[in-house]
Amino acid sequence: MTFSEILKVSQNDLILQKVTKCLMEDIWSKEAEIQPYMKIRDRLSSKSGIILNDTKIKIPKCLQKQVLQIAHEGHHGMTKTKALLR
């Protein structure tokens, strides 16, 4: 997954766009979908159109499953990993 892909999807994610606007204007919406971000607003920033939570990229919801799959590629689980080490 590339930075460009995350950026493109982030730019089309309505919630992340609202959060970006809130960060830029420092005016936070009362919408329920924005509230989780408002609670951590002191840790949020926007860099080149990407939302960051401290140094971690906020992955758009529609990419989260794909990111988990990538993270688990090659990981066989504890039992299989131990068996491979024997």
What keywords describe this structure?
single chain; three-stranded antiparallel β-sheet; 3 strands; 86 residues; mainly alpha
Summarize the structure in words:
The chain is mainly alpha-helical and 86 residues long. It is built from five helices and three strands, in the order H-H-H-E-E-E-H-H. A three-stranded antiparallel β-sheet has the order 1-2-3. Strand 2 (50-53) and strand 3 (56-57) form a beta hairpin. The chain is elongated, with a radius of gyration of 17 Å. The two termini are 33 Å apart.
pLDDT < 50 runs, ≥5 residues:
none
> Topology as H/E string?
HHHEEEHH
How many helices? 5
- Strand order across the biggest sheet? 1-2-3
Summed over residues and divided by their number, the pLDDT gives a mean of: 87
**Beta strands, count:** 3
**Residues in β-strands, percent:** 5-15%
Considering DSSP H and I runs of 4 or more, what fraction of the residues is helical? Answer: 55-70%
Which of globular, elongated, flat, extended, rod-shaped describes the shape?
elongated
Q: What radius of gyration results from the CA coordinates?
A: 17 Å
| Spatial gap, N to C terminus | 33 Å
Largest sheet: 3 strands, antiparallel
Helix-strand makeup class: mainly alpha
